[in-house]
Specification:
- This protein has 57 residues and is mainly α.
- It has one domain (3-43).
- The protein contains 2 helices and no strands.
- The radius of gyration is 22 Å and the shape is rod-shaped.
- The termini are far apart.
- It comes from Achromobacter denitrificans.
- Required for the export of heme to the periplasm for the biogenesis of c-type cytochromes.
- Its main location: membrane.
- Keywords: Cell inner membrane, Cell membrane, Cytochrome c-type biogenesis, Membrane, Transmembrane, Transmembrane helix, Transport.
- InterPro entries: Haem_export_protD_CcmD.
Amino acid sequence: MSWDALFSMQGHGPYLLGAYGVTLALIGLEAFVLWRRARARRAAPDARPARADGARP
């Protein structure tokens, strides 16, 4: 498929661009949610008590 066909407003071009756009938006959303969750987990105090031998659970 040529670039002209992809970006033309006739045929399947708009649907392909929409599908790529939605896919990129979902990837971005997932990356943002994972980043936010990791940041919150890092900032939260550790709720689990430490083991006596110093090993990590």
